[in-house]
Amino acid sequence: MKFGSIEAGGTKFVCAIGDETGKITESITMPTRTPAETIPEVIEFFKKEKIDALGIGSFGPIDVNQTSPTYGRILNTPKLAWQNYPFLQVIEEELKIPVGFTTDVNTAALAESTYGAAKGLNSCLYITIGTGIGAGAIVNGQLLQGISHPEMGHIIVRRHPEDHFDGFCPFHHDCLEGLAAGPAIEKRWGKKGFELADDKKVWEMEAYYIAQALVQYITIIMPEKIIIGGGVAKQAHLFPLIRQKVKELLNGYFTQPQFNEQIDDYIVPVGLDGDAGIIGGFVLAARTIAKKD
Ligand code: ADP
Ligand code: ZN
Whose CA is nearest to atom 21 of ligand 1? Predict the structure, then answer.
């Protein structure tokens, strides 16, 4: 079968064609402008190809609840031109094929669990630490979702005793995203993350926050693998710091090897590099067809 995938980000849109093996055969990248400027280009790309189904992984917040009257819309994003935009509906009407719709972190989680670092497992958690922080979880082979998709970047964390930065989340100030996403690092230390690679204090504080988040996710979800992606996770030396702090916080409570001697293989970088979001769109497309048949 031939699948389409849209990775809709706040700064760029990636559209691709692929198959059920996760192989990308063609792709284009375009800047995210208003829907009126961006979507016709997207439609044009896919109309040229005879695809069987399509999966969309979108920036959020979005309505993923299939029983909701606003299902498939982008909700209260700071990108005003996209607020309430009926993304799914427009694509479905134009292409007239089954279309799956979820968050960008959910498609990345789907790809990593099908082809990447969590291949063969029934559960995993994918977290991105980039311009924002978000996570998608797969539990019993299904994306975790209730009233809406999870918003795991906005959990409340204990403050580092030496951190005097207010936090930049417009809603909560010092939630996890407000204290630990890429822009928080830049605002707190006055330089971008990659320029601070050698500053131990920066990464000790970053790991302090990320480890707390992972402990919350572990205790609630118990995923079989935790995969960390996003620009900030390119700092490879963060991983041992995070694992160490997770161990400290769990303090021996869990005796399973994943939380102890096998932790290096439990909290890991992405397996699919930058392509998880787009490949996950193919997985979502295949799942959408399977549900409709
Ligand atoms: P987005 O979240 O917009 O999809 P990224 O995942 O690349 O994009 O995240 C961008 C953020 O990650 C920025 O705040 C940037 O400063 C930070 N970042 C990107 N590359 C690195 C790096 N190598 N080291 C540390 N921080 C980085
Ligand atoms: Zn927040």
Answer: 231
